[in-house]
Amino acid sequence: MSVNKEIKRITTVQVQEMKHRHEKIAMLTGYDFTMAKALDEGGIDIILVGDSAANVFAGYETTLPITLDQMIYHAASVVRGTTRAMVVVDLPFGEYQGSIDQAYLSAVRVMKESGAHALKLEGGLEIIDNIKKIINAGIPVCGHLGLTPQAINKFGNFGVRAKDDNEAEKLKADALALQEAGCFAIVLEKIPAALAAEVTASLAIPTIGIGAGNQCDGQVLVVNDMLGMTKGFKPKFLRQYAQLYQEITGAVGQYVADVKSVNYPNDNEQY
Known about the structure:
alpha/beta; eight-stranded parallel beta barrel; 11 helices; globular
């Protein structure tokens, strides 16, 4: 399907219209200006400034350590690199799960200081009032259900969620609650494909899957994983479209050899 490059900036309304005309939504994470420009030029619909920056940029084992200030820094960098893609930003752990007022103030800071277009929050009914407060302030929110990495210490692992009936029923109830609260989309992470298909069919708003099968309205991957930049990480749902880790180490090795052999710079590369 051709990319609609004539669109100046993707909006939440256009994302919802994509579901209704059965056009799949393509989302990737992004954390910096240079990558954002490449993703935008490549035709990506949504760039998610994920708290996964804690993993792929800072080397933490979980997403929990990243701060609101750091997320704003990454988000502002991505916004400056885009002209077409919608930029959605994760609110980090601890910035919205508590009081409604804290959630609201954190959300306002991200929108004002980064220039992003929407936020993503993990969780369902347990934070629904906080989500409503943010949406009522005019800030678009994307929900996130299934494997929610900010709750990793509760889950104990990164395994598939909602495999049993009780958890599946809660996920379905959470999805409906998020839609009723006004979320414009929901990310479904690492749940059975059949459940994701059922939830997707039940909602008027789009679902965006990661490890949730091909019946979601869109897909998202961590860009570093998709490009083969993260060595040794290959879950079942991940398709690598490049092998940049090997490309980079090979290029660095050649550069080192050229410098040490005085092959770089040559006569044409100096003033």
